[in-house]
Write a structure and sequence with these properties.
Layout lengths: L2 H6 L2 E6 L4 H13 L2 E7 L24 H18 L3 E5 L5 H8 L4 E4 L10 H21 L4 E5 L12 E4 L12 H15 L7 E7 L2 E2 L6 H10 L5 E3 L5 E2 L2 E2 H16 L8 E5 L5 E2 H11 L7 E3 L1 H19 L11 H7 L3 E3 L2 H6 L8 H10 L9 H5 L7 H5 L4 H6 L4 H20 L4 H21 L3 E2 L2 E2 L12 H26 L4 H18 L3 H21 L1 H25 L2 H21 L1
Parallel strand pairs: 1-2, 1-4, 2-3, 4-5, 5-7, 6-15, 7-12, 8-11, 9-14
Antiparallel strand pairs: 10-13, 16-17
Helix pairs in contact: 2-8, 4-5, 5-6, 9-13
Length: 604
């Protein structure tokens, strides 16, 4: 049998949206059955369904030892071979253009509507045109071209309002009155149009609702998790961390579409005009899923819990600040919002028994295999740990250098735990003695000196040996302060005073706006601190001293990245403010800033 005769014996189907995650896996599964002539249509003009993978340093994305490299090449090769042997074709189509759709759909007996706009598209008009109006065009084109079956790839989120949990939800759940994400509202409208079109002429329709779709390359979940981990948002678990999600591996979704087509072919009544949840049938604690992905990407998994209510207040404040800043400058969106926080604290599990019963669906890839294959495709996003291998651990850390590389650094960084604990106990005693006892400072100091004198007197009166234990005497030199240490302290104090006076004199000349603003902000911060109880400020300060430097030493890379991001944001804000000032004032400030920087460079 010739190639042309073989292609004529195949049933023609169209995969609309064949370049997205769900669409391309359906294409490969249809081709592997060797029963279909597969027409692939999408917005993009090129044929390869996989784009080039970003090439990180020292990694060859086409290394045959990498499973996804073989996976991607096999799929592209399968499609190329199918096109050359008249078993597949590719067309560029605009879903908002019905005439183009009719031209592409013509001759197809089955249409798999897999198209959905990319997650980067946030404009409501564009989303409405592609999801709702586009689906309406697909239905009309199917009716005009006498298509027998239309299967729509919907989403389980059409019944999720973004706030309230869904535990073992089934197909009888009603659509919510209000959506947190308008995209889900539009997908729900498109789904209803597809279901209402069932039985209109010879057209049979149904819809599938995958939950949290994931798979190799192009899935939104893994890049989102990695970005959140880079930005430091996934150091903690939000809430109690017990909420579960249902997930759908993309191969299982492709298998479900073929099962649905076969069920429609058999004219089963519950299938035509029906909707079906599709999951892996393995509900998973969302934070276990996050940890599995992050650990495979060489990032630390969340290790402690944060109360949702308190953290929600913080995120809402961050959103308000970001909203105000975005009115002046263009900033990237926050990686974590109130809507995503609601999402990560909700349960989203669904019952697939109806899909199992009526379309014969059963997962063909487990969660464990799906996660493994997915993270393998994102090796270019994995954390580069080469700097840890090349780092000289004998070199002092930045935190150690900031603290002077001496005994103070050893104590604050917990290098000498015995001295650190001794100092903490001493500070706790003084804190209670002077601030929490309720006595005036002079009275507390007098009582403390009194106790010291009594202790020293009794210590001197005791014999040198008590019950066989020797009692060392306290030498007089113990109470002496070395002259060199006292001289260094006085020199440091005098130098700091002289620098402060010189800076004050320089600021008073009106030539250094940079240091003037620093001094102004510092004094304003001091003013705010004076409104707070002194004991509370001191306690917070002590806790920060013994924790912040230690955390910085342990998480130096992450802290430096956050500080760099904050510096970039502040520079954008300053540039935006400078642009809104009068021209003559901008020139004056710019000249003063540059002059101050030149003088600082000369001094250094």
């Amino acid at each position: 049998m010739s190639l042309s005769e073989d292609s004529n014996s195949l049933t023609t189907c169209l995969v609309l949206g064949g370049r997205n995650l769900a669409g391309r896996h359906l294409v490969f599964r249809l081709l592997s059955t060797e029963k279909w002539f597969v027409k692939v249509a999408d917005l993009k003009p090129s044929l390869p369904l996989y784009d080039e993978i970003p090439k990180p340093p020292n990694i060859d994305p086409f290394d045959p030892s990498l499973p996804f490299a073989r996976f991607k090449d096999d799929h592209n090769q399968m499609l190329s071979t199918a096109c050359s042997s008249d078993r597949a074709s590719y067309s560029q189509v605009d879903i908002t253009n019905k005439s183009q759709l009719c031209e592409v759909i013509s001759g197809s007996s089955v249409v798999f509507h897999m198209y959905t706009p990319d997650r980067s598209v946030n404009d409501f008009e564009t989303l409405y045109a592609h999801i709702v109006q586009g689906t309406r065009n697909v239905i009309r084109a199917c009716q005009e071209c006498n298509v027998k079956k239309l299967i729509y790839n919907s989403s389980a989120d059409v019944v999720f309002d973004g706030v309230h949990s869904i535990d073992n939800g089934d197909e009888f759940l009603q659509f919510p009155n209000k959506y947190e994400d308008p995209r889900n509202d539009l997908i729900g409208q498109a789904e209803l149009m597809v279901l209402f079109a069932n039985g209109n002429g010879d057209l049979l329709t149904c819809a599938l609702r995958p939950s949290n779709l994931f798979g190799p390359q192009d899935a939104p979940l893994v890049p989102y998790f990695v970005k959140a981990a880079k930005d430091g948002w996934f150091k903690a678990i939000f809430g109690d961390g017990r909420n579960k999600w249902d997930f759908t591996y993309v191969e299982n979704l492709a298998h479900a579409h073929i099962c649905a087509e076969q069920a429609l072919q058999s004219l089963k009544d519950p299938v035509s005009g029906g909707v079906f949840f599709i999951t892996n049938l393995e509900p998973m604690v969302i934070w276990d899923f996050v940890s599995s992905v992050l650990e495979a990407m060489r990032y630390e998994s969340p290790s402690f819990h944060i109360p949702v209510a308190r953290f929600m207040v913080f995120i809402e404040a961050m959103e308000r600040v970001y909203k105000n800043l975005c009115s002046y400058i263009n900033l990237p969106p926050l990686p974590l919002s109130t809507s995503s926080l609601h999402l990560f604290t909700c349960t989203k599990t669904f019952n697939c028994s109806i899909a199992q019963k009526h379309i014969g669906y059963a997962p063909i890839v487990s969660m464990e295999e799906g996660i493994e294959w997915t993270v393998e495709s994102y090796f270019h996003l994995a954390r580069d740990i080469s700097f840890l291998k090349n780092r000289d651990l004998n070199q002092p850390s930045k935190a150690y250098k900031l603290l002077g590389c001496g005994r103070v650094a050893d104590v604050i960084l917990w290098r000498d735990e015995k001295k650190t604990f001794s100092l903490l106990i001493t500070l706790a005693f003084f804190f209670h003695w002077f601030l929490l006892s309720g006595r005036p400072f002079i009275s507390s100091a007098a009582k403390l000196f009194q106790l010291v004198f009594v202790f020293l007197f009794l210590h001197a009166c005791l014999p040198s040996s008590i019950l066989g234990y020797s009692k060392p005497k306290i030498p007089a030199s113990y109470f002496e302060v070395p002259e060199t240490r006292l001289r260094d302290a006085l020199i440091f104090t005098a130098s700091a005073w002289n620098r402060s006076v010189a800076m004050l004199h320089y600021i008073a000349q009106g030539n250094d706006w940079k240091n003037f603003l620093k001094a102004l902000c510092s004094l304003y911060l001091l003013k705010l601190l004076l409104y707070l109880p002194f004991a509370a400020v001191l306690l917070v300060g002590l806790v920060l001293v013994f924790s912040a430097f230690h955390v910085y030493e342990q998480k130096e890379e992450e802290v430096d990245r956050i500080l760099k991001h904050m510096t970039t944001v502040m520079r954008r804000v300053m540039r935006s403010v400078m642009r809104k000032l009068p021209a003559h004032l901008t020139v004056y400030l710019s000249s003063n800033f540059s002059q101050a920087q030149d003088e600082t460079a000369k001094d250094s």
